[in-house]
Amino acid sequence: MLLTGGAGFMGSSVARALVDAGHEVVVLDALTYAGRREHLQGVAVELVVGDVADPLCVQPLVDAADLVVHMAAESHVDRSVRDTRPFVRTNIDGTRVVLETCQMSGNKPIYHVSTDEVFGSAPAGVFFGERDPLRPGNPYAATKAAAECLIEAWRHTFGLDTRIIRCTNNYGRRQHPEKALVGWIQRALRGEALPVHGEGAAVRDWLHVDDFAAAILAILDYEGERRTFHLAGRNPRTNLEMAELIRSLIGSGRLVFVPDRPGQDARYALDDAHTRADLGWAPRVPLADGLRELIDSMRRR
Ligand SMILES: NC(=O)c1ccc[n+]([C@@H]2O[C@H](COP(=O)([O-])OP(=O)(O)OC[C@H]3O[C@@H](n4cnc5c(N)ncnc54)[C@H](O)[C@@H]3O)[C@@H](O)[C@H]2O)c1
Fold this sequence. Notes:
Elements: E1 2-4, H1 9-20, E2 26-29, E3 46-49, H2 55-63, E4 68-70, H3 77-82, H4 85-104, E5 110-115, H5 139-158, E6 162-167, E7 169-171, H6 180-189, E8 193-197, E9 203-208, H7 209-221, E10 228-231, E11 236-238, H8 239-250, E12 254-258, H9 273-279, H10 287-300
Parallel strand pairs: 1-2, 1-4, 2-3, 4-5, 5-6, 6-10, 7-9, 8-12
Antiparallel strand pairs: 9-11
């Protein structure tokens, strides 16, 4: 299998799960600020350092693979607000290159990892279904939605074998501290203030990265008709609740309110009932346990 973005946070967990399940994995990763060789330490994969938007790099890797799990992306919303260009290049053009190379390589299947953010903000009580319209609210989400549109277009126009996997906020080891949850843990461990956007009212749904990786294995094994998969943690928390929880688990740090992110989406929420029923998958890591384990591992480091 070719796994793009496999040296990143979620990719490195997926790489572990794939290898443990007996798959032969080649990781393609540009090792940007978010991807690190150390993330794959002890994992029996071949790491190719290269750009997913470069067809000359991608084509031979796709030719040598049976399928592609496509996770390479620029992933941080705040960065996309400051400069959208790398997001357009990697998330959109990179996905186009993966599609074209898979097409040229005899229609290799693509498992494309996307996000709950493509739907934009979910009104209270609404959980987005697989066929709901995409209404991205920030530049990162817009590039992920555009990538999904390309995936659907290649499927519709060229009959490419594609899957789209949308998940809620992941947390766990090897995540970059620019992401809120890990940043809060790092600051609380140092006794520093935890910055909370606006009034902390935005709601995110938390899924442990090991549960995400287990779902990827289940999706690879799945032989039914479903093409779009929703993976939800069903652990919705306001940012204020999550920062408070981390502060209380660590026993130090204080909250400080900072200006809200421009275009902040109030709430993300996926309906994952179909996916759970079809795959027999459900998250196993309770939020408090996952957080304690993550805090312990970061404390040790
Ligand atoms: N983190 C989340 O909570 C979350 C939630 C939903 C969906 N996603 C999606 O899951 C995927 C993985 O997210 P993550 O949080 O692990 O991100 P990450 O930023 O930790 O990892 C992304 C990886 O992609 C690599 N990469 C970036 N540009 C590249 C390029 N041009 N060519 C090759 N590799 C490149 C980076 O080096 C990095 O290793 C992304 O597609 C993201 O959109 C993430």
